[in-house]
Amino acid sequence: MQLPDAEQLLAELTGRIRPDVETSTALVGIHTGGVWLSQRLHRDLKLSLPLGALDVSFYRDDFGQIGLHPQVKPSDIPFEVEGSHIILIDDVLYTGRTIRAAINELFDYGRPASVRLAALVDRGGRELPIAAQYIGATLDLPPDKMLALEKTDNGTLSLSLYDKRRDNE
Asked: 3-state SS of the chain: helix, strand, coil percent to 5?
């Protein structure tokens, strides 16, 4: 399957977000791919509020089943969440469970005025009523495949597809 160019999708996503950016707009990326995207969006959109990052590992609803991810990163929200207009950034929107976990964690920091969602790819398969306001592309992928965003040493982004079974073996 031919995957779209992640760099081109990011450029398109930036263009879709740009008209809605105000001085009070803040970006929060979800580890790991969402943080990579939010760093690039923050720079390209020239936002004044500092960039935030969330690791939703402790907020996942399958935490009791799969345990702690071996690479937990600290969350960091270096601005006042209370009353802020936040755009939450993730690389792949799938079931919606990661976004639910991110919103739960975000509200631990305060009550934002609004939260919008941006995803590089919406692959469908939603299990919760979550929708993104900004999407780079929509892909129809088989349910036995996982889509991942990767970053090279020079910062170039790309997409890869792999079998879900890989993680269970």
From this structure: 30, 30, 40
